[in-house]
Amino acid sequence: MSHPVPDARSLRFRIGAGLGVAVLTLGLGVTQLKAATEQAIAIDDATFDCLTAMTAVRGFFVDNLLGNLEATVAAAESPDGAMYPTGSVVQLVPTEVMVKQTPGTSPATNDWEFFELQVSEEGSTIVARGFVDVVNRFGGNCFGCHVKAEPKWDLICETGHGCDPLPITRDVIAGIQQADPRCRAPEEV
């Protein structure tokens, strides 16, 4: 049985249709891959550990859940402000944490998720988490304070960033940091 030889127009249509399907399939694959890599970072009680085991920067502590600590530290140390990379963890005291989620998770908070923790020698328990509605144990809304930071500081409050000053001294904050019960004292030799 012989097959008819396609004319040039039919051949161009078939090639064009095949390329269109290939491009569509590739486009969907890239979209699916992008969606898979931009899912929210999974966080549970075990995510948070000893505050002082993190990297200290001017009195607060940082880490990165995705391993990009160098970029997180660079953002924290920038004298002119910077956007923190996805996965960044910023913490001033043991019971309050900010985590930079994937882009688009919460445009209102620049993708920062806020956590209120209960801490003990056994570890951390997430008491509250969210974006614009987390209230700390003192009745303060986390986002309500951090939104006052000038945009170039990516919602990070420090002296001179635009946020209201904390009602406690730097020495008291340092004492709270050092008293984190999740941090184990070195064993005596």
Task: Explain how this protein is built.
A hairpin with a 2-residue loop joins strand 1 and strand 2 (60-64). Mean pLDDT is 84; it is low at 10-37. The protein has a six-stranded antiparallel β-sheet with strand order 1-2-3-4-5-6, covered by helices on one side. It has helices at 8-37, 69-77, 142-146, 170-178; strands spanning 55-57, 60-64, 88-91, 96-100, 112-120, 123-130. The chain contains four helices and six strands. The longest helix is centred in the first third of the chain and has 30 residues, at 8-37. It is globular. By secondary structure, it is an alpha+beta fold. The protein has two domains: 7-37; 45-178, no CATH class.
Present the secondary structure layout.
Elements: H1 8-37, E1 55-57, E2 60-64, H2 69-77, E3 88-91, E4 96-100, E5 112-120, E6 123-130, H3 142-146, H4 170-178
Antiparallel strand pairs: 1-2, 2-3, 3-4, 4-5, 5-6
Keywords for this entry:
28% helix; 6-stranded antiparallel beta sheet; globular; 189 residues; single chain; 4 helices; 6 strands; alpha+beta
SS strand fraction: 15-25%
Radius of gyration over all CA atoms, rounded: 24 Å
Number of helices: 4
With strands numbered from the N-terminus, the spatial order across the biggest sheet is 1-2-3-4-5-6
Kindly report how far apart the N and C termini lie.
90 Å
Largest sheet: 6 strands, antiparallel
State mean pLDDT (0 to 100 scale): 84
Helix percentage: 25-40%
Structural domain count: 2
Query: H/E series, N to C?
Result: HEEHEEEEHH
Number of strand elements = 6
Which descriptor suits the 3D outline?
globular
- Determine the structural class based on helices, strands and strand pairing: alpha+beta
